[in-house]
Amino acid sequence: MIRRECTPRTNWREAVESLGCNFHTIDGAPYWDESACYEFTADQIDMLESATAEIERICREAVLHVVREKRAKDIGIPEAFIPYVMNSYDARETSIYGRFDLVFDGKDHPKLLEYNADTPTALLEASVVQWHWMKDRAADADQFNSIHEKLIAAWKKTGIRSMHFSCIRDHDEDLGNTEYIRDTAAQAGIETKHVFVEDIGWDSRQKKFIDKDGAVIQTMFKLYPWEWLFADSFGPHIAESGVRFIEPAWKLMLSNKGILPILWELFPGHPNLLPAYFDNRFSDNYVRKPFLSREGSNVSIVRNGTVQEKGGTYGAEGYIYQEHMPVPSFDGNYTTIGSWVIGGEPAGIGIREDTTEITMNSSRFIPHYFKE
Questions:
Q1: Could you read off the pLDDT of 219-264 as tens digits, one per residue?
Q2: Could you give the CA distance from residue 239 to residue 13 in angstroms, rounded to a whole number?
Q3: For 356, left (φ over 0), alpha (ψ -120 to 50), or beta?
Q4: How many whole angstroms separate alpha carbon 292 and alpha carbon 149?
Q5: d(Cα 20, Cα 288) in Å, to the nearest integer?
C-alpha cells in the first residue's frame, strides 16, 4: 500500500463534472483530489475483499441477534418505531448498498471502524469517477471496483418497476449521489422520478405520501437518514403510508454505532473487529462515538492522555466506546478505506484522507489502483 504523488489531469474539473461530480471542491480546496493516489497489490485487495465479505456476514448475524433478543432499544432505535423496524426486517425488505469504514495498513487484518449502512455517500466518486481517472492515468493497472455493474444487477433483482428518488434541496453532494443511483436504477429498467424531501406531502384522505405533482409515492430511494425521518413531523405517518423504502428501515440496526458493541459481544477477538462497549472500559487509547454521529461529529479520540474531538449536535442518544486503532498516516495524511457492499457482495473501495484521524465531510477522496 503506497501513496504516490500524481499530476492532476489538466481538465480534471470538466472530467469529473461530466460524470455528475459537481461537488469536487469544498471551500476552495479539492474534495476530489487526484494530486495523489494509492497503489495496492493484488494480495492486499484480496484481503480487503475477504474482510468485507466476512464483516457483512457477521453484521447480518448481529441484526438477527438484535431481533431475536429484542435489543433494538439498546442500540438507540426510538421505541415508538421499533415495531416498524422489526416489521421491515421480518418482510426481508431489499437492501441495495452499504459502506464499511475500515482501518488498513496493507499488512494486518482490516478492522471495522463503523458501518455506514443507511445513507453512505461517496458512492459516485468510488464508482465511475475514480474508474475514469484510472483509465486516464493508470490504464495498465486495475481497480477494486465493480460498483456500477453490481448496482444495476441489484436493482434488477428488486422487481421494482417505478420509483421516486429523494434527497434534500441545495446540497450538491447528496444530489449528485442520488442522481447517480437513480441513473443505475434507470439502466436496470426502472422508471424513475426525482422529488426533493422538502416537496413531499401527506395526503390525509388517501393516507399516502405524494410528490409535488400529487402522484402517490409507492417506492422511494432516500438519501436521508432514518433517524431524521422518524423525527420529522411526518414521521408518525411512515408506517401507515405503505411506502417501500431503500434503504429499508431494518438497516437502522446497522447504521448506528450501537451495533459495534454487539458485534464484539457476539464475536470477541474477531480479527476484523475492535473491542467496543456500551460503557467505558478503557483508561486510555479509545474512541467515544455517539450512536448516530455523521461526518465525525462529536467523536472523541482519547490517546496518551490527550483528547482530540470534533464538535457537533449529536450525543443525546448515547455513546459507545471503541478501542483506538491508529489510522495509517502517509506523510501526515491519515487514510481511511470505505469498502462497499452492493447486493450483499463486496464491490470496491474508496479512500478518504485528512490531516486528522477523524474523517469529516471535507476529507479528501483519493483514487486508487492495484497491480499484480
A1: 999 999 998 999 899 999 999 999 999 999 999 999 999 999 999 9
A2: 43
A3: beta
A4: 30
A5: 35
Among residues 94, 109, 76, the alpha carbon closest in space to that of 257 is found at 76
Q: What percent of the chain is predicted at pLDDT more than 70? A: 98
Alpha carbon distance 318, 289 (integer Å): 9
Among the listed residues 285, 225, 211, the one whose alpha carbon sits nearest the alpha carbon of residue 255: 225
Per-residue pLDDT tens over the stretch 8-50:
999 999 999 999 999 999 888 899 999 999 999 999 999 999 9
Residue 295 backbone zone (phi > 0: left; psi -120 to 50: alpha; other: beta): left
What is the structure's pLDDT at 361? 72
Measure the CA–CA gap between 75 and 71, rounded to whole angstroms.
7
Q: Measuring CA to CA, which residue among 341, 348, 351 is closest to residue 45?
A: 348
Looking up cell 402522484 gives: 215
Any bridge partners for residue 287, and if so which?
A: 301, 322
C-alpha cell at 10: 489538466
Three-state secondary structure along the chain? CEEEECCCCCCHHHHHHCCCCCCCEECCEECECCCEEEEEEHHHHHHHHHHHHHHHHHHHHHHHHHHHCCCCHHHCCCHHHHHHHHHHHHCCCCCCEEEEEEECCCCCCCEEEEEECCCCCCHHHHHHHHHHHHHHHCCCCECCECHHHHHHHHHHHHCCCEEEEECCCCCHHHHHHHHHHHHHHHHCCCEEEECCHHHCEEECCCCEEECCCCCECCEEEECCCHHHHHHCCCHHHHHHHCCEEECCHHHHHHHCCCHHHHHHHHCCCCCCCCCEECCCCCCCCEEEEECCCCCCCCCEEEECCEEEECCCCCCCCCEEEEECCCCCEECCEEEEEEEEEECCEEEEEEEEEECCCCCCCCCEEECEEEEC
C-alpha pair distances (Å), 72 with each of 4, 78, 150: 44, 8, 30
Bridge partners, 3 (sequence order): 38
Round to whole Å and give the CA distance between 21 and 347: 20
Compute the CA torsion angle 16, 21, 22, 27 (nearest 10 deg). Answer: -90
C-alpha span between 45 and 220 (Å, rounded): 34
pTM of the predicted model as reported, rounded to 2 decimal places: 0.95
